[in-house]
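Q: What does the assembly look like in three dimensions?
Context provided by user:
Components: four
Sequences:
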Amino acid sequence: MGLTIYDIAREAGVSASTVSRVINSRPGIRKSTRERVERILRESNFSVSEAARGLVNQTSRMIGILVSDIRNQHHIEGAYMIEQHFMQKGFCSLILNAGESDESKASYIRILASRRVNAAVLVGSAFQNDSVRRAIEAYMPDTPVIFQNGEFSLPNVSSAVADEVHGTAEAFSYLFDSGRRHIAYMNSNDTPSNRKKLDGYLKAAAEHGMEALVAVSEDSPERSAEATAALIAAHPETDAIIYAIDLLAVSGSRAILDMGLRIPDDIALIGTDNSPFSMLSNPRLSTIDTKLRELSTACSEMLEKAIADPQYNEHVVVTPSLVLRETT
Amino acid sequence: MGLTIYDIAREAGVSASTVSRVINSRPGIRKSTRERVERILRESNFSVSEAARGLVNQTSRMIGILVSDIRNQHHIEGAYMIEQHFMQKGFCSLILNAGESDESKASYIRILASRRVNAAVLVGSAFQNDSVRRAIEAYMPDTPVIFQNGEFSLPNVSSAVADEVHGTAEAFSYLFDSGRRHIAYMNSNDTPSNRKKLDGYLKAAAEHGMEALVAVSEDSPERSAEATAALIAAHPETDAIIYAIDLLAVSGSRAILDMGLRIPDDIALIGTDNSPFSMLSNPRLSTIDTKLRELSTACSEMLEKAIADPQYNEHVVVTPSLVLRETT
DNA sequence: CTGAAAGCGCTTACAG
DNA sequence: CTGAAAGCGCTTACAG
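A: Here is the predicted structure of the complete assembly.
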């Protein structure tokens, strides 16, 4: 199009100020004037430029949401809730794939800064690194930031994190109490979150006086099937495996069945995240529910408070729980 | 923050014009001046306002991506590719949940218009309705629109669609040729895409002189398990089922196994979409690959051309293929 | 090589 | 109840 309020003003025989007041439902406009302007606005399919509006109002009415990869189901849930909730309040969400490297993530902080977002949300513990921290200090020191499952001790950064150490330790104890004595752990990529899960496993193993056995798989079904088979081949006494991620446990379970072993009779399995995969797998996967929903809700609520009050700062912790299905 | 180029100009003892030229790497600036300005820009963590810049340049450098629900794996793939690709070119993606109803989807067209996006992408056939069409005609008649898996015969709307009629018909023929004679179809929500799949089934059934048997399930694992069990109870002669969506087939397969039937011996199953679920399920699901990747790539390429040339208009068709695994 | 001025499309005191 | 003017933070002819 390209219509401006001046075009509408001319058409209606009024000034741009009046058109602006009608658009923004300001009081003190004669009814007949208002109706005439409204009609012309409607008939010409006029649409105000949010950019121009934002420039004078000093607000973009945009929220920046950073996720390392939006295809990751686990991370998109938080973005969904926020987008849904804030759209109704007139905010648009800039949902960006911030990439894998620390530097790439940090550069996205700059991008959000230049778009002058009203607030930023970081989804996933992988944002917890020095590059990102420095970028926030340099480029968005006064913009509210909500960190989902990670934290920075910065005055403008609030956070909601899952107590993953506890979650994994509880899973270990459950397996131990059911009589398992060779409980292995299948880790994935090195992220702050996965480090906490691993800590929980190591801590629990030590507390129960058991030897720890840790294997690592990349975050793909194929790699996990291979890593699981290798683990069992090298340690045939293994009678339980805790996986850092549900998806790895699901394809791991398939590898175990293909080896002719029974689940849970020969080997018990516990995944992490209570993802859709865990419910749909066959056998249905027991898993550590890291309370993604609660975490997302908390972030959405914190975001709302932070936008209302720039001084807002809070740190909440959510406790995981065990969901038992058919693999234990 | 709140620094403007005037603050930088004062600090550097130059005019705002010069600062702007340095920021935009314009030629014809004395080296020493450029370096001084650059240093001050860096030291003060200056970040240009993209909104102000966009206002004078008459471009937002934003792309609007509409998806009815971003949690839907199937739809987010396209958004991912586009975001990845255009971010490098300096475009930000406004990824929005456009909701289920036609009116809600149409209202998001208005939102994108007021943000003055350089182009819009509609992901999913559900956008193919009159409300959306009228909103495009009214509010973005000149903005390039790329429609993934749907189309409008509008000069500014290009499209890439999968030939789903063919895909489902081919699945039917395969089952028929393997000796199945009671091939049922499990449909899902009524969308243009699902209508095409159903058409393919009905057409193929008629061509093979077979009776059609169509059941419907809502788009949830629980509903599909129930619908599948009900279908088999009512029609025990059923020896094959084609599902409109992989996810429904996966939970359907579980329901069939729970009834004591064998897959594929008693009942063969074919899903649709070649989603991650199909590969991870047990037994692994045979499926109609609707070439989501190809569709997304095509849309991304079309988007690039459309941004470069506003006159661009193209309609591409992608042909699905059958992926055979363990359920046939 | 550099700066003053106008303008992008709005909103909001201020004046009447 | 309404309008003229200034200003939000930039960029870009134009002039020198």
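Follow-up: Chain A has a mean pLDDT of 96.
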